[in-house]
Every structure is written in structure tokens, then in C-alpha cells.
Design brief:
The chain is mainly beta and 291 residues long. 12% of the residues lie in helices and 41% in strands. It is built from three helices and 16 strands. The strands form three sheets. It has an eight-stranded mixed beta sheet. A four-stranded antiparallel beta sheet has the order 4-3-7-8, with no helix packed on it. The protein is globular. It starts with a helix and ends with a strand.
């Protein structure tokens, strides 16, 4: 009894010494956020916005007001420097989606093996970044499906692939999937390196991609369904693009977890800009899953 009485007294001492701690979040000046990419055979695509503070009230009007308009944006492939134009797309309720590109009649399209320089002038500041579109060396050889294991729903299936990794470390990939008429979405973990699979041909499951703007149903995550027409978009990327998406996805999955390890998203925009400029060498692979 004495032992438990001592423990209760110690616990009471700790409880009685509690203090209310009020954290005052630091107000940060908005930073430029860049979401830019260039694929082989496609025109460059750049979205510019301003960052919000962590406890900002976010609604449609606030988000629409974060777009950075009238910036001077250009991309160089080493021999040409092409200015990008600003475009707007109505998305309803008086709101617009804004982006920069060369448009359908543009003269600059991504090519494998080339390095591209991005330049952005806005608010009296100059931001630069670069990316390389690798050669398409790591590829999907084949796709097939099989019944979802340990699942009583016979309509759910998993997608399998056979992939060949070329010899030599440094082959980085990012993948997306498209089911039927929906858009391409990246997997929850969409980027991979070849530390373990260097120079090998291996079989691996491809989880269905997700839109991270909606709540994810984890009981359905990763599965496709009988009757789906599936297209896998396999992208070879450079190290900077891999680092950005790897750290971004880790940060996304850690949101709200008090026990997660703190992490920093590693972008490739200079002058304090946030975000990334990524180059993609793309392979598409299609599979029809019978009903």
C-alpha cells in the first residue's frame, strides 16, 4: 500500500505542476509556390500561386485569390528561350483556373535527354529552376490482374506489372493510373528508386492512383474492379523530381500524426520559392479487366 501511495503522490505532483502553454503561430509572408512540369512530346505547364499561413481560413474565394497573375515566365532548352502565355479556364461560380504554357500552337515541346531552365519574374523577384527529362530506360514489360487476396469482394482485383530496371543506380520513376473515363491520378506512394531492384526484372503490384483533394477510403484503396479499362502512366524522372515527390508524399501522409517524424519538402525552386519543376519521360500501358 505504501508503494501505491507514493506513486499516487508523485502523479499528483506532476498534475499539479501543469501549466497552460499557448502557442502563437508565426505569421509568414506569402511565398511563391510553383507547380511546373514538362513531358516528352508535350508543351510545358506552369501553375503559380502564393502560400497561405497554416491556420488560414480556406475557402474557394481564398484559393482562387492565391493565383499569381501576370508573371513573366519562360523556359529554355539550351538553344531557345520561349516565353509562356497566361491562360484561364472557367471552373464555375465565377472562379477561374490560371496557368502558363506555350499553348497548342507552341514551339517548345519536351524531348528525352534534354535539360530545361525555368525562369519566373514576379513581384520584383526572379526565380529559377531546372529539370531534365531522362531517357525512357525503365519500362513496364507487361500488365495483368488477379483476384484481390484476403478480400471477400469478388469484384475487386489487384493490378500486377513486370518491370525491367536497367543496370546502374539512379533510375527514378513516378507512376499514375487512369480507370475508365477518370483522370490520371498518382499512387499514394507514387515515386520509387532502384536501390533494391537495380538491373533486375521484377513483378510488383500497382495500386490505383488517388485524388488527394478528397477523403481516401482506405478499405478500397489500391483495388481496381472487374470491367475497368486501366491505363498506367510510367514516368522516368530525375533525382530532384524524385526528392520533391518523395518528401511531399511523406509530409502529406504525416499530417495530423503527432508521432510522425518532422520532415521538410525538398523543392528545386531557388530564391526561397516553394514547389518543383519536373521533367517526365512517359510510357503508357493499357489493360482491360474483364467483368
Amino acid at each position: 500500500m505504501k508503494k501505491w501511495g507514493w506513486f499516487a503522490g508523485l502523479l499528483f505532483a506532476f498534475v499539479s505542476c501543469e501549466k497552460d502553454i499557448q502557442l502563437q503561430p508565426e505569421i509568414q509572408a506569402p511565398k511563391l509556390v510553383v507547380e511546373a512540369q514538362i513531358e516528352d512530346g508535350q508543351a510545358p505547364y506552369v501553375i503559380l500561386s502564393s502560400s497561405l499561413n497554416y491556420f488560414s481560413t480556406i475557402d474557394a474565394a481564398t484559393l482562387n485569390g492565391t493565383y499569381v497573375r501576370n508573371a513573366k515566365v519562360s523556359i529554355s532548352d539550351g538553344s531557345r528561350n520561349v516565353a509562356l502565355q497566361e491562360y484561364s479556364v472557367p471552373i464555375g461560380n465565377g472562379y477561374f483556373f490560371y496557368y502558363y504554357s506555350t499553348g497548342n500552337g507552341g514551339t517548345l515541346f519536351g524531348e528525352q535527354g534534354k535539360t530545361y531552365q525555368l525562369s519566373i519574374e514576379t513581384g520584383g523577384q526572379l526565380y529559377r529552376s531546372s529539370t531534365r527529362i531522362p531517357y525512357l530506360t525503365k519500362k513496364i514489360d507487361s500488365l495483368w490482374w488477379k483476384k484481390a487476396p484476403f478480400n471477400t469482394d469478388s469484384n475487386k482485383v489487384v493490378l500486377m506489372s513486370r518491370v525491367t530496371d536497367p543496370p546502374g543506380l539512379g533510375n527514378y520513376i513516378r507512376y499514375f493510373t487512369k480507370a475508365n473515363s477518370e483522370e490520371f491520378f498518382p499512387g499514394m506512394n507514387s515515386v520509387f528508386d532502384d536501390q533494391i531492384v537495380d538491373g533486375k526484372t521484377y513483378d510488383i503490384q500497382i495500386d490505383q492512383g488517388v485524388t488527394k483533394n478528397q477523403k481516401i477510403k482506405f478499405e478500397d484503396y489500391g483495388y481496381f474492379k472487374r470491367g475497368d479499362t486501366v491505363i498506367v502512366k510510367m514516368c522516368n524522372i530525375d533525382k530532384a523530381s524524385f526528392d520533391f515527390w518523395k518528401t511531399w508524399e511523406f509530409a502529406y501522409q504525416s499530417i495530423g500524426n503527432p508521432f510522425s517524424t518532422p520532415g521538410k519538402v525538398i523543392g528545386n525552386i531557388d530564391n526561397g520559392g516553394l514547389g518543383s519543376f519536373c521533367g517526365y519521360a512517359v510510357q503508357y500501358k493499357r489493360l482491360i479487366i474483364p467483368k
